Amino acid sequence: MNQNFDEKCKSRGLSITVQRQQVYETLMEDKSHPTVDAVYMAVRKAIPTISRATVYRTLETLADEGLIQRVLHPGSSARYDGNPAPHAHIVCKVCGKTEDCMDSDLNPMSYPSRSSTGFSITECEITYRGVCPECQRKAQA
Amino acid sequence: MNQNFDEKCKSRGLSITVQRQQVYETLMEDKSHPTVDAVYMAVRKAIPTISRATVYRTLETLADEGLIQRVLHPGSSARYDGNPAPHAHIVCKVCGKTEDCMDSDLNPMSYPSRSSTGFSITECEITYRGVCPECQRKAQA
DNA sequence: GTCCAATATGAAATCTTTATAAATTTTTTC
DNA sequence: GAAAAAATTTATAAAGATTTCATATTGGAC
Question: Quick check: B57 and B80 in contact, CB under 8 A?
Fold first, then answer.
C-alpha cells in the first residue's frame, strides 16, 4: 500500500497491520486536522469492522513515534495532523476549525535549554485561538 | 475577601459570589496549574456543598474574562493557571506535571497578521512537551 | 506451516464536560 | 431595607471522550 509507511513501521519495530496502514493513509489525505472520531468514520469505509479503540490507540502510537502529530484543542476532543513537522496552528474557538498557520513573519520556534528546565523536550506546540472568518460573519448577522 | 477580585467582577458585570471568590483564591494559591478536579477538591474544603459544575463554569467564566488562563493538556483534562499573562508552558508527557517556562533565551511570542489568516486572534499558547526530571530518573531505574 | 508476540475487537467502565430545571443568592429598584 | 428581577448555584442526569479488559485474530520469525 504505502511502502514508505511500512518501512517506517518496520524500522520502529511496529507490526504492519491493515488498520495502521489505513489510519495513516486517511490522515495523510485529510488535511483538516480531523478528530479521532472523524478518522474513525473515514477508516470505517475501508475497514467496516475496525474498532474505535483501535483508532485511538493507533493514532496515539503513530504520534508517539513521530509519524504524525497530535494537535490540542481547548476543552474538546483531540485532533491529529498528518504532518509531523513542527508548525503553528490556529483554532476557531466558536466552531473548532483548525488550520495550519504558516505566516512567515512569525518568530521561528525556539526551544528552552535543557539546563533551565531539567525537562528533556521532544515537542513544541504553538496554538493561536480566535474566531475564523465564517464565524465572524455569522456573529455580525 | 479579595477586594481586587470583587472589583474586577464588578467592572465586568459579574455577580460576586462566595464560589467565585473561593475558586479564584484557590487558583491564586496553587501554582501547580491544577486540573478542574483538583480545584474542585480544594474548594470543597472551604465550601463543602459546592457543585463540580460550578467549578467548571466558574473557571471557564474567569478565563473568558481574562482573569485566569486555561492551559491545554494533550488528550487529557484541562488545567488552569492563575497567571493570565501569556507565557509558555512545559508539560511532562509521563506524569502530566505542568510548569511555567520562563527561559529568557526563548523567542518572544509573535502573532500572525490578521490578513494572512482571516482569523481574529485573541490568544496564543505555547506548549513544550517532554519528560520531567523525576520521570527521567524513574525511567532509568 | 507453526508458534509466540503483538495487535485488534467489542463491550463496558471510566473519566471529563455540559445541559437542565428547580432552588438559592445577588443585584436592582423603590 | 424589602420586594422584584436577574444571575448564579445545585444536583442530577446526560452526553461525549477516552481507556480498559478479556478474548479473538493477525503478523512475523523460525
Answer: no
Q: Which CATH superfamily is domain B86-140 in?
A: Ferric-uptake regulator, C-terminal dimerisarion domain (3.30.1490.190)
Protein-to-nucleotide distance from the CA of A113 to the C1' of D26, whole angstroms: 44
Q: Which CATH class is domain B3-71?
A: mainly alpha
Buried b (16+ CB within 10 A) or exposed e, B53-83: ebbbebbbbbbeeebbbbbbbbbeebbbbbe
CA of residue B50 to C1' of nucleotide D13, angstroms: 17
B78 Cβ under 8 Å from any chain A Cβ: yes
A positions 102-131 inside 8 Å of B (CB): 102-103, 105-113, 116-131
The pTM (predicted TM-score) of the whole model is: 0.83
Residues of chain A with pLDDT > 70, as a percent, come to 84
B101-127, pLDDT tens digit by residue? 876 655 556 677 665 678 888 778 888
User: Which CATH number is correct for A3-140, 3.40.1010.10, 3.40.50.620, 3.90.800.10, 1.10.10.10?
Assistant: 1.10.10.10
Optimal mutation site among B76, B128, B131, interface A, most CBs of chain A within 10 A: B128
Can B3-71 and B86-140 be said to share one CATH topology?
no
Give the cell for residue B130.
517532554
Q: Where are the domains of chain B?
A: 3-71, 86-140
Cα–Cα distance, A75 to A81 (Å, whole number): 18
